[in-house]
TrEMBL record:
Domain Purple acid phosphatase N-terminal: 1-72
MF-aspect GO terms: acid phosphatase activity; metal ion binding
Keyword Glycoprotein: yes
Domain (Calcineurin-like phosphoesterase): residue spans on this chain: 89-274
Gene3D superfamilies listed in its UniProt record: 3.60.21.10, Purple acid phosphatase-like, N-terminal (2.60.40.380)
Domain Purple acid phosphatase C-terminal: 280-309
InterPro entries recorded: Calcineurin-like_PHP, Metallo-depent_PP-like, MPP_PAP, PAPs-like, PAPs_C, PAPs_N, Purple_acid_Pase-like_N
Keywords of the record: Glycoprotein, Hydrolase, Signal
Gene field: Ogl12g0041P16_10
Lineage of origin: Eukaryota, Viridiplantae, Streptophyta, Embryophyta, Tracheophyta
Name of this chain's protein: Purple acid phosphatase
Positions in coiled-coil regions: none
Record organism: Oryza glaberrima (African rice)
Amino acid sequence: MRICWVTDDDDGRSSPPSVVEYGTSPGEYTASATGDHGTYSYSDYKSGAIHHVTIGPLEPATTYYYRCGAGEEEELSLRTPPAKLPVEFVVIGDVGQTEWTAATLSHIGEKDYDVALVAGDLSYADGKQPLWDSFGRLVQPLASARPWMVTEGNHEKAAYNARWRMPREESGSPSSLYYSFDAAGGAAHVVMLGSYAYVEERGEGTAEQRAWLERDLAGVDRRRTPWVVAVAHGPWYSTNGAHQGEGERMRRAMEPLLYDARVDVVFSAHVHAYERFVCMFREMSFGHGRLRIVSETKAIWTWHRNDDQHATVRDVVVLESMAGAKTN
Ligand SMILES: [Fe+2]
């Protein structure tokens, strides 16, 4: 588990040490780990010291209490993910720092979960780098308590690599913009793709990322790993007018790999609207639907696809009556 935090002092030599002390009881730190820190500059902004410390090995499904920087007063706690199913992911993207962000974070915090998947566009700092610092303060209560696994959006700019160090080396990736990890003791494999790797890497990124993805997926044993999840910022399918076609180059390069590997679900962000599709790739979907109106408020839609002469339920949606819904 990697702990990242920022201290105000932008002079690396006088920064508090990159040390995390931790243990399984409050106030009792039986272990410590040392990492490193660095800064980055963007225009006339210079960041504070950004510390990265890897702690562990840790026990699964265990709460650890920790403090960042030797002798610091503030104690935080985190819970490690479980080593077996079930596991629950929170999925968010286009997070920002608005009143909607506050509501979303509050709603996430109201219900337990194990790991957050953040599908890019985090702080919306763009050229205003201090917004990264306010974003860090905003998400800290949640991001300090569970693993937050992020991928890059189009609003991250130079800060992404400096601030978010994801398990690139551990997943054999040549770039910090794409990586993978296992959850629930390998029952789930999560692939975090880089929608902008080709921009960052001057056109070479798509082929390089594709080659890495092919290697990564080839290493997944579906008998041991029944669930494979992929995340990319830019959607490959969207009916929204905004950002049409932006993911097309990546889709053409990588979708066949995901299809052949029988990836179960792909999450994206970027378009600020909620949509879902059943498998779109090479999908000749013959079958039938059933709309079961259960009550005055609830109905259940199921799509029964013809699959080798058998009807298989490939989509289920619970609908609420719109009779009492507000219209804008
Ligand atoms: Fe975006």
